[in-house]
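Quick one, probably user error.
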């Protein structure tokens, strides 16, 4: 058997990694209209025969170059005869060809069970599956592995029937039969041209939850969610979400599913959340499996959103794909916007918008303000896997939302229709999308294009000037886009800001909401008929992804938190009031909490408000978000300020918190908007009681933990206890582990809860957990649950002396040889070293330097670490 120890793992050599630039894009020299693949599947040694119909693209004499990574080539033929003069250059198979078209056949061997990178064909818990985005197909067979080479695929698989009774691939099934020596085979055909990153194959012992969906044209589509037999009862929610997604896409975008079969397979080892492969989505099992005992309300919501996201890719990503990886947000930003809209339609649109913006601020705003900042359409990369970022996905979605806001529903839908119709079956660009929006609406989006090319989060200063004598109010707005690595002196961007004025005396709106589209560095907008001092409600609905700096006082913010008729703006006013108070306390050592306490009390007492909204509104900003507002982050001061306000809120509003988590007020679990809201507020209240130091708080949490009939309440109680010191905490952690030790997804929660705990000894506890028998670096979910959670625990990660930094760096270096993608994605908290005091900054920088200096690290980890050291 060949030695795969080196070939299955791409490592750095002494040479510097190559940089790929957007400006260097060239169309492929050879196209591949048709592909036929034949797999003899086996975990230890799989043989792949590929038959490529290749066509010269244009007038040139370039040879055919096929990308590869780690396979062992066995044979190469051209038009049925042994190929002459072929060579391996780097990892590319180079075949000299004359003429316009040929049939190229290759045969290679690969070892799925030794593929720890989880890219290409790999083994996961006895299942063989693929992950090919972005450049995993080259690990399966030789191919021009780029998104602008689209082909139709025929796939034949043969495998041991006992070990792999289910054989699935893209498209629709064509034939199946029995082979020799206990094997069987299946053939699949995908008639729609697709890039190689969308190829998928699954073989395993799987059970299926089947259903059907009838499209608006009357076609019946066979649906299947494939999992291990024991997990079959946990697939109903995902299947329901799939059917809702299919109906929603028909209703809102007019897009109908195009194949006869749609399959989803859940696997435990996966670098991403899920993958949209044409007709055969492969999912991380955490985004498929759910029942009340093992999944929280958040898990249920996330499953529905991810199922929708991957299904929506059938059009925004598959039927129309991206020309090159610099255009990644073309498919991801648009599809995130679509899945956010879908989720908003399934429940509270206001709460969904709050959740989305909180996620944007937690991940993308720091990215935009740090050394890894990059435009939504990047200009260069070393490893494309490092650009599956919050900027590409979440900020990219905000760009689509801004266009929809400015153009209006009808024009935006017309633009989407034009985009899908014009570019169906092609590899398109972000520019193609914007141009379709312009043509359908008549709008000029020239300046808007800056959002795709300029990194950084715009900062908008706002003030209101009232002229009582004239009845006029002037809203003064100024914007600046901060410098980011490689970009300075940036031009003003288009900012669609939804604005409304309220009377400070009457509490009534002063006119209708306006959409103010800011295009210059500074603008003033006049509003007539203003007879009392106005208070501005600005960026309502978070209509633009910007940071607002206004002259609104604490009283003004408290007023908006009580009177604003836009739910997001009302939430935002409360959060800004809290944030201003916390920043003042962090900088000055103390602050007046009375305005915050009164505003939270008013919100809790408002019976007309959705309980889920109330729960979001009364939550304090995170320690990380508070730190983002400071010139130099002092984690100890941030923690002290936040804990002081939490404690004051807890004690001042003790009766209200107790009422919210009253054990007598419990109904049987139901996954409904109302039920989710009650549980959300109940757990927020329980955390406040713990923070207030009430003597019976641990007992209340333990009682909820024991009595819970659902994971939301059980984990809510566990997290409330985790940061304290009590025998109830120890008992709950032990009981949780004993109950779920055999459930990997739930055990991830056990690791994560402890990694996020706000305790002095969390670094030591996390180090101990890394030695736990159930911890493994080989599983990305488990690594993220412990390492990723600890790295965002600001108090624990930044403990004086740098123990947290050393531990993270050690874990990344241990993980990198196994899975470079996951290792690189866990590094960014170290890269924000410039934000901290000199002592911590020096310690963080030293760990980055140690990582970069380590021989043989992957280009994934090298790119993230080196940019973190170099970026300004």
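Nope, works fine. Designed sequence:
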């Amino acid at each position: 058997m060949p030695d795969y120890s080196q070939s299955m793992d791409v490592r750095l050599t002494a040479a510097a990694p190559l940089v790929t630039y957007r400006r260097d894009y060239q169309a492929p020299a050879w196209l591949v209209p048709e592909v036929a693949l034949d797999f003899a599947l086996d975990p230890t040694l799989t043989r792949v025969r590929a038959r490529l119909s290749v066509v010269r693209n244009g007038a040139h004499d370039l040879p055919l170059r096929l990308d590869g990574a780690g396979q062992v080539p066995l044979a190469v033929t051209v038009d049925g005869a042994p190929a002459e003069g072929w060579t391996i250059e780097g990892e590319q198979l180079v075949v000299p060809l004359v003429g316009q078209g040929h049939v190229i056949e290759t045969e290679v061997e690969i070892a799925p069970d030794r593929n720890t990178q989880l890219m290409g064909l790999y083994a996961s818990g006895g299942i063989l599956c693929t992950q090919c985005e972005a450049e995993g197909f080259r690990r399966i067979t030789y191919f021009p592995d780029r998104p602008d080479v689209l082909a139709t695929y025929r796939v034949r698989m043969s495998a041991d029937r006992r070990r792999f009774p289910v054989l699935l691939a893209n498209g629709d099934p064509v034939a199946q039969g029995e082979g020799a020596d206990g094997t069987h085979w299946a053939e699949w055909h995908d008639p729609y041209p697709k890039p190689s990153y969308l190829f998928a194959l699954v073989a395993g012992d799987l059970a299926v939850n089947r259903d059907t969906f009838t499209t608006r044209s009357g076609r019946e589509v066979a649906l299947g969610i494939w999992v291990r037999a024991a997990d079959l009862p946990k697939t109903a929610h995902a299947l329901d979400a799939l059917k809702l997604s299919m109906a929603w896409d028909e209703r809102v975008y007019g897009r109908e599913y195009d194949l006869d079969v749609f399959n989803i397979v859940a696997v435990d080892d996966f670098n991403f959340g899920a993958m949209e492969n044409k007709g055969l989505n492969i999912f991380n099992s955490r985004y498929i499996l759910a029942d009340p005992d093992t999944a929280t309300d958040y898990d249920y919501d996330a499953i529905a959103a991810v199922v929708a996201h991957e299904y929506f890719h059938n059009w925004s990503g598959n039927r129309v794909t991206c020309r090159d990886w610099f255009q990644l947000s073309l498919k991801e930003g648009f599809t995130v916007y679509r899945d956010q809209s879908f989720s908003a339609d399934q429940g509270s649109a206001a709460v969904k918008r709050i959740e989305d913006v909180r996620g944007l601020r937690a991940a993308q705003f720091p990215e935009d303000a740090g050394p890894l900042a990059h435009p939504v359409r990047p200009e260069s990369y070393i490893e494309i896997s490092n650009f599956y970022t919050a900027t590409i996905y979440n900020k990219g979605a905000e760009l689509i939302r801004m266009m929809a806001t400015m153009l209006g529903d009808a024009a935006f839908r017309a633009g989407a229709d034009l985009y899908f119709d014009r570019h169906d079956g092609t590899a398109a660009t972000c520019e193609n999308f914007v141009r379709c929006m312009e043509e359908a609406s008549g709008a000029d989006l020239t300046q808007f294009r800056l959002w795709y090319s300029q990194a950084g989060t715009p900062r908008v200063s706002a003030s209101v000037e009232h002229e009582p004598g004239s009845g006029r109010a002037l809203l003064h707005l100024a914007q600046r886009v901060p410098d980011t690595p490689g970009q300075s002196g940036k031009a003003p961007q288009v900012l669609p800001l939804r604005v409304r004025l309220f009377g400070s005396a009457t509490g009534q709106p002063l006119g209708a909401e306006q959409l103010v589209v800011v295009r210059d560095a500074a603008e003033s907008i006049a509003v007539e008929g203003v007879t009392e001092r106005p208070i501005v409600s600005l960026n309502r609905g978070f209509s633009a992804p910007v940071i607002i700096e206004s002259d609104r006082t604490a009283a003004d913010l408290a007023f908006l938190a009580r009177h604003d008729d836009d739910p997001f703006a009302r939430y935002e006013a409360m959060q800004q009031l809290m944030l201003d108070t916390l920043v003042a306390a962090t900088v000055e050592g103390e602050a007046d909490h009375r305005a915050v306490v009164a505003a939270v009390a008013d919100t809790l007492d408002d019976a007309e408000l959705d309980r889920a909204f109330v729960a979001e509104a009364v939550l304090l900003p995170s320690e990380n978000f508070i730190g983002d507002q400071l010139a130099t982050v002092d984690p100890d001061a941030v923690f002290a300020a936040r804990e002081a306000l939490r404690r004051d809120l807890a004690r001042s509003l003790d009766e209200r918190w107790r009422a919210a988590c009253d054990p007598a007020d419990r109904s049987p679990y139901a996954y409904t908007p109302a039920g989710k809201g009650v549980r959300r507020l109940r757990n927020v209240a329980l955390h406040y009681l713990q923070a207030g130091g009430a003597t019976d708080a641990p007992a209340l949490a333990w009682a909820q933990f024991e009595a819970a009939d659902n994971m939301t309440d059980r984990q809510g109680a566990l997290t409330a206890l985790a940061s304290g010191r009590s025998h109830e905490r120890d008992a709950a952690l032990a009981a949780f582990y004993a109950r779920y030790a055999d459930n990997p997804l739930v055990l991830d929660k056990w690791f994560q809860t402890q990694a996020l705990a706000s305790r002095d000894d969390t670094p030591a506890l996390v180090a101990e957990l890394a030695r736990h028998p159930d911890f493994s670096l080989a599983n990305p979910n488990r690594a993220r649950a412990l390492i990723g959670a600890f790295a965002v625990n600001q108090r624990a990660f930044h403990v004086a002396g740098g123990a947290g930094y050393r531990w993270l760096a050690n874990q990344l270096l241990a993980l990198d040889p196994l899975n470079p993608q996951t290792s690189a994605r866990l590094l960014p908290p170290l890269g924000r070293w410039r934000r901290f005091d000199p002592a911590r900054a020096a310690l963080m920088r030293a760990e980055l330097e140690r990582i970069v200096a380590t021989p043989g690290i992957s280009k994934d980890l090298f790119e993230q670490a080196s940019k973190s050291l170099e970026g300004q």
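The longest helix spans residues 567-588.
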